[in-house]
Amino acid sequence: MLIATKLVKAYKTVLAVRNVSISLEPGQIMALVGASGSGKSTLLNLLAGLADADTGEVRLKGERVPGPSEVLVPGHKDIRLVHQEYQLMSNVSVRENIAYALRFFEKSYRDFRVNELLKLCRLTDVQDRVPRQVSGGEKQRTAIARAIADKPAVLLLDEPFSHLDLPNRLIVRDLLFDLVRHEQIGSRATSCLFVTHDASEALSIADKIGILRDGKLIQLGAPVEIYHRPVTAYAARMTGLVNILKAKYLPLLGLPEYDNPETLICLRPEQLKLDDTGTPGTVRAVYFKGSHYELEVEVSRYVSLRLLTSRNDLQIGQVVRIGLRDNALWQLKG
Ligand SMILES: Nc1ncnc2c1ncn2[C@@H]1O[C@H](COP(=O)(O)OP(=O)(O)OP(=O)(O)O)[C@@H](O)[C@H]1O
Q1: Residue 161 pLDDT > 90, yes or no?
Q2: Fold for domain 243-331?
Q3: I want to staple 121 with a disulfide (CB 3.0 to 4.6 A). Which of 9, 145, 293, 315 is the partner?
Q4: Ligand 1 center to 199 CA (angstroms)
Q5: pLDDT exceeds 80 at position 202
Q6: Cα–Cα distance, 78 to 114 (Å, whole number)
Q7: To test the ligand 1 pocket, which listed residue (12, 13, 14) has its Cβ within 8 A of the most ligand atoms?
Q8: In 3D, which of 187, 287, 186, 268 has the Cα closest to residue 227?
Q9: Which of 271, 275, 273, 196 has the alpha carbon at shortest distance from 229?
Q10: Per-residue pLDDT averaged across 288-311, rounded?
């Protein structure tokens, strides 16, 4: 189990990581979601033993993970970090890049394991090409295959989806999911922690999601919990499309105001519906999303709401009526 306790890291005047504590169980997937500059990469480096914490510590299976100032070769043998740039050897094939991680193993096992990894990461067809001859998605998967080759306890990934197109994002998402489950069958369970600024993949595969803001972990929980009960407007926005309105505008939707009219209320688009008996509003935007349409409907000068519909006959300027699917409103703390 990987446990980080009260990690703090500052760069001169910037406090990049503030008192962050997390724990990752064997076989778990955790995603840390935050805006640019929220401290994601710094935290990953601390977890990997590649940066020295000012205070706090990281432990893997009870043993302290030393920082680079304490060891000759920075990093920990059981923790692998896949960087955004992949850091592959440019003059050797995909296969050899992966095999290099297993150079101290017997050849027969090495060949077996490399074949297994090529299959798992869907790289068998491109195994003889050098990195410049493969796509970004294939480079990413080669870096992941190399990182997990000798079954580390922890796989850390920095923005594994950010440079990829949608099909490749889905392949990598499924791969992470598969490899954590697949590698669990063996005697050691690999855990995976990745950082991202886009929660869409995180919501679907992570067991736990942490929301980072200005170096602080402001919320940690299961994806469903964070999505439906975000603590702040920032956590709500980082995890998907959301309407945030002040409680004083709830009567517009036929609901009573709260004691404090300035309280922020979070309404996910799917909590709203087009409803002939609901509140009238004017369609301000219609976005085609493939499986559905996203509408922006102005219900007053101060309130525009986003909702989803399968109706394909709506036009900008048209008046529609909006109702709530359920009255489960969620109150934000700020
Ligand atoms: N070497 C450094 N020297 C000074 N400040 C730094 C250094 N590295 C990061 N920072 C600052 O620390 C804060 C956190 O940076 P970090 O790179 O960890 O965030 P991030 O969430 O990974 O951002 P991004 O998504 O843009 O990569 C930022 O304010 C950044 O400017």
Answers
A1: no
A2: OB fold (Dihydrolipoamide Acetyltransferase, E2P) (2.40.50)
A3: 145
A4: 19
A5: yes
A6: 19
A7: 14
A8: 268
A9: 271
A10: 94
Contact 151, 183 (CB under 8 A): yes
Question: Across the chain, what does the average pLDDT equal?
Answer: 92
Q: For tokens 């008996």, name the residue.
A: 277
Please give the Cα distance from 43 to 32 (Å, whole number): 10
Distance CA 317, CA 298 (A): 10
Which one of 38, 83, 213 would you pick to mutate in the ligand 1 pocket, going by the greatest count of ligand atoms within 8 A of its CB? 38
Decide: 16 in ligand 1 pocket, CB within 6 A: yes
**pTM of the predicted protein model:** 0.91
pLDDT score, position 184: 60
Is residue 183 predicted with pLDDT exceeding 70? Answer: no
What count of other Cβ atoms lies within 10 Å of the Cβ of residue 119?
Answer: 11
Give the per-residue pLDDT at 255.
Answer: 86
In 3D space, the residue among 88, 261, 218, 85 whose CA is nearest the CA of residue 157 turns out to be 85
Q: Specify whether the CB–CB gap between 156 and 128 falls below 8 A.
A: no
Q: What atom in ligand 1 is closest to the CA of residue 38?
A: 21
**pLDDT of residue 258 exceeding 80:** yes
Distance CA 310, CA 297 (A): 15
Query: Which residue ranges does the chain devote to CATH 2.40.50.140?
Result: 243-331
Task: Give the amino acid at 4.
Answer: A
∠ Cα 309 314 316 (to 5°): 120
If you average pLDDT over residues 315-334, what whole number do you get?
A: 88
For 2-232, which CATH superfamily applies? P-loop containing nucleotide triphosphate hydrolases (3.40.50.300)
